[in-house]
Amino acid sequence: MKQSAAESKSQRIARVLEAEIRSGTLTDGAALSSENALVERFAVSRTTVRKGLGILAAKGLIRTKVGIGSFVTYGGAVIDSGSGWSLSLADGRARLGTRILRIARLPMDLDDPAPQGEMLAVDRIRFREETGQGLTLERARVPWRDDYEAVLSEGLNGGSLSRTLAARGLSPATGEEWANVLCALPAGDAALMGRRAGEPMLRLRRLTRDGHGGLFEYVESVLDPEVFGLHMEF
Amino acid sequence: MKQSAAESKSQRIARVLEAEIRSGTLTDGAALSSENALVERFAVSRTTVRKGLGILAAKGLIRTKVGIGSFVTYGGAVIDSGSGWSLSLADGRARLGTRILRIARLPMDLDDPAPQGEMLAVDRIRFREETGQGLTLERARVPWRDDYEAVLSEGLNGGSLSRTLAARGLSPATGEEWANVLCALPAGDAALMGRRAGEPMLRLRRLTRDGHGGLFEYVESVLDPEVFGLHMEF
DNA sequence: AAGACAAACCTGTCTAGACCTGTCTACCAT
DNA sequence: ATGGTAGACAGGTCTAGACAGGTTTGTCTT
User: Fold this and answer.
1) B202 — contact with chain A (CB < 8 Å)?
2) d(CA A34, CA B229)
3) For residue B158, what pLDDT is reported?
4) Which one of 3.30.70.3400, 3.40.1410.10, 3.20.20.370, 3.10.50.40 gives the CATH number of domain A86-231?
């Protein structure tokens, strides 16, 4: 077999496996085949397979444990504790696009956690690419720090606020998450999402704290109930 | 065998048992099943079971005596599990009454798990005592066994199906749970609950399996979204 | 009724082997 | 120098046993 010039074998392996993960063939939490099985499947050496898996691990798509194997960690938007909810797409294959509504510095504007002064606010919508209809509306608030100035101008690392914070060495120590039914979508949110007001929606609120109990991040999400659900294994 | 997270089998066993201890299913001083029984239940080797028990012992949750068995030594407050989600009453203290709609032997009548033949069915409503309005509607299905005959005539142990099963030495090895928004309460369920049809509701589905992957229990619940939510700490 | 004994449990400990990832080295090709 | 191959080795995880010794219980004997 001829090797396409631009892509090494390990990159190809990573690409094929990533496609299987993102397409849902390999679902969240599922075990990948063992390295030796992948050696068989791709007819390459184990070194090459491991390089490919390394690429996926660096992207955060899989995690591997000695003596056990590699596991898909994509889509578990929550924690890696293995014992939490993960948000799941109930509706098989919906292609999601993302649009950032704003990244701004402003006083706390959400009701729930005690007012905390200036915040870094990130509002984001995810929408169905075919129709443009908004499927999720997420409002994240993080206590302002001066080194967030760069975020305002340069945006987020990989579109993810948690990744942006992690890149600054910030990660939460504890947290809570609530899920409930929002019986009627408010008109303002409906307009932003391109939906009808009054629809029932799935609502998630997530509050994380740093080691000293201070607010780390607060996220409020409204999700299309036809597409999103929560899933847990135990 | 499919493993659900990047977690070793012994860790999973420890986690499941810890949840049972902390949730009060296994109370202080109670004996755990013997190691060989746990081998059966989780379908793993005794070495692995012992590793799991070792984790619990290291946490001080159990103590084991030669020739006798392992015992729960967790005396502390039996608050909620800490791992996984717990159903929480959003609406402070609503006094709940319980009404069993039926306990019956019948062929599988719910859509979700593959049809399994005869089932023990328990349908139950929880309602607000002040108003009589139904807050939850739960349908539980368990594959029929002949020794359930007594359940049909004598009812459940303490009103709980899981407790009834546990009393017969039956407990699940693994399970999954889904939560989503039921956009419109069907008319039939609405009549049972004394609610208006078409209301949005919170819907939970829970499927547990025995160690060999066979169906253990399936429960479908519909919950008042004003009163119930999901909560998780991590 | 009291004691001895055996069977059936239980945990503690050990082994051999299968299969897994992590790491290393030596070598080849472009 | 880079990317791939092939193999060896260490160590983690799990299985399937065997064996020793503690505990309980029922039964048989005295």
Assistant:
1) yes
2) 39
3) 76
4) 3.40.1410.10
